[in-house]
Structures are given as C-alpha cells and as structure tokens.
Task: structure prediction
Amino acid sequence: MKYIYIYLLLLQLAFATTYQVNTLSDSSDGSCSDGNCSLRDAITLGSDGDSINITAKGTLYLKAQLPIIDSKTLIISGSGVNDLNISCRKSCRHFKITSGGLYLSNLTLLDGNSTNEYPDSGGAIYADKSLLSITDAGFSSNYSSGNGGAIRVTGGSLHVKGANFNTNTAIASGGAISLAPYLSMPITFSIESTLFKYCASDFGGAVNATGEGNITKSNFIYNSAKTQGGALNLEESRESSDICRISETSFYYNSAGLYGGAINSRAVLQIRQSLLAFNDADYGGAVYLKVNNTNTNNIIKLSMIHNTTLAYNRAYWDTSALYINNTYDNNVSISHSTITNNVLEANRAIGAIGHYLGNVSIKNSIISHNSDNNDSTLLDCSTIDSTHFHSNGHNIMSKNDSPGHECPLNAKDILTTQNQLASFQDNGGNTQTFSLLQGSIAEDNATCTDNEGNRVYFDQRGYPRSSTTCDIGAYENASTSMINSALILYLLN
Result:
C-alpha cells in the first residue's frame, strides 16, 4: 500500500504545473499564458499539487484577500525573504486555506489585518482543517482582532522552519500563532529555528497552542501577554497523548500580566537543553505549570525540566521561576538543571520553585542564590505539601527555606551559601549557560542519570557528559578524555 501511495504522489508531481509570477501587480485577467501572470491568477488557476514561483522582487500590495485555497494543495515560493514583501496595507488577510494545504517559502507577509475577514482570526493566514508549512519566511506587523496575529490554524497541522515573526498582535490569543483543534480533528505543530520578537496578545504573547507539538532551536524575545504565557501559552488538550516538547530554545525578556512570564502550561510540558531568563509575571516568573489531566484515558503524564537553566526571572507576587500547581496524577521531573538568581518582588517566603500540588522529583540540580528583592533573603524552594515533593539527591541549595514549608533534603544533597557558578555567557551550544567556578563542589558530585533512571549523555549545550560521574547542574565541565569516553558510550548504546 505504501508503494502505491508513493507512486500516485510521484505521478501527481509529474503532471503538476508550475506557474511563474512575474509581476507585482494585483491584477486578475484569468490567464497566466499571456506572459503576464499575477499571484492572484496563479492561485485561481492552480490545481492540487501545482507550484507557484514568484520571480518578481519588491512589494506586492494586495487589494483584497487572495483567492481561497480550497480542497487543494499549492506550493508557493517567493524570490527571497528580503526580496519579496506581500502587504495588505492593514486592510485584508493574505491567505485562507480550507481543507487543503499550503507550502509557503522565501517571502515576507506584512501588514495583514483580519478584522474585516471571516473568521476574524489569522492576520496573515487562516488555515482550517488544513496543512500549513512555512519555510524561510517573515511575518511582520500583522494584526488579528481574534486569534493569531499572523497565523491561525484550526485542525490539521502547522510546520514552521527558519521563520521570523516580528511585531505581530492578536487581541485574544497567539500574537504570532494560534493553534486549536477543530471538533474531533486534532492539531499538531512543529517550530524550528524560528524567531518570535515583540509579539503580543492576551493569552500567549507569541504562540497559543492546543495539541501535540515540538519547538526546537528557536528564540522568544520581548513578547508579552496581558494575562498568561508571555511567550507561549499551552491549553489543556482532550487528547491524552498530547505533549509539548521544547529543546535548545531560549526565552528572553518575555512578560505576562498574571501567569508564566515565559510559559503558561495546562498541557504536559517537557523542556530540554533550553534557557529561560529575564522573564517576569505575577505568578511564575518563568513558568506556570498547571496540568489537570482530565483526558478520558486518565494516563499519568510526566512534565520535565532537564538540562535547562532558569535565571534572572522575576515574580511580583508568587514564585520567581517555576510555579507548580498540578493535580496528583501528573508528575514533574527536574534534573541536571540550574535555577539561580531569580527574584521575588513580594516580601513572602516563597522560593524560586513554588510547589503547591502534584508530584515533583528533583535530582542533580543547582537551586541557589534566588532571593527576595526586599531583604535579599535566600529563597530557593518552598512547598505546602512536602509528602509529594521528593529529592532524589545530588542537588545544591543555598538555603532550606520557609520552616514548615521547606522542600525536603536528601542525605546526598548539598546545602551551601557559597556561589558555585561563573559568569552567565555564551559557553557554546544554542543557549547561554553558567559555567562552573574552578574547584566548584558541583564537579563530579552528580549521578549521570535522571529521576527516571535514564542515562544522561549531554549537558544543556549538547556537550557530552562524563561517562562515570557527572557535574551537578546544566553545565558539564568535562575534559577532552571524559568527552571522548562519553561519546564512545553514547554511540555504543
């Protein structure tokens, strides 16, 4: 069956037509065979699987939304993200796709506005029960009075790679991107090597999503949400299998009015080899995690923060870095991470990790020198339910805070007020890290496994960890011989 499908796909491509758009005019004479082919005509004439190459350079000003791409898939490629702009002049949406697909690349969509479109979501693109793929494209100054300042997808899938979202705004959710299922049709998404900057909305300053997704090697900078998820807001999903996985990604200077300066999540969240720094909110300066697991299968899911740094985040009322308020059938695992220099503005005995509900395990992590801004009291960790907060050892804390509410210490944890970290800087890899001071007690004092007993081969930067004893925290101060032996062990497994 697989080979029949591939054969039919190749057959379709063999008979596909390629249209060459050679004008920046938004005219329509219903023909592309007269030597003058507009984008509007090419979309109208294009059949399922056809390609449209825009060779013209400059700015194409649209008079109205382009023809709806309905029940067909088109491949549209521009002359370059810096060479071709398509502008709606704040008066229309660029594209609408229904029950079809669009592969879009090498252009910039700007000044879209979905206020007068139906529905009023997706300032540049609205995709309904469709596949949308974006590669090497820009989205700038697009606006939605509903959801998705640049892109709104309901049901289907979104794939973004090498894009730049700058100054997009939505009134409701997803300043850049808003994703939601359509009735029983789920949504899946992947975002890679993409920048989100100066985007804003009420929920999810840059991205608001429900569904299974992956975000990797991307950057979220200076995004804001009035209510929750300064950069990313993850809604609770009806699908028990839905997890949002984030890796090698940085969240800088994002802000939320209430919950989660960088991320607010009601979905299972797994963060690896990433950085969350200089974000702020009232509750959870970096992350606010509230997973309720109301899915029908009632499967216990594991949220994870692994090989990740949370630093210089700020909360104005409760929990400066990571606020955890899950139900008890949802677990959180923190391992080989560095949580430091986060500040709580309110004069309250609540730490950088604030545990309220849910099962939490922590191992091989540095949680130190987090403080109360008013009196510089060290506030690393606090809980109201110590029976569900577990240390699996090999953690460094600067103080065991809040008598009666402190996070439990394992016999193999280290309690010290001495700083173990060098400067916060680029030490290689995709994200900034804290290296270890020479002679730090973090060196060779960790196991090389996470809370679940899995072998840890790399640190936050993607550099190999030791094959025998590892360093505590997100950074591995490994010698060349240690790196070689770790690489050999990884390859053998």
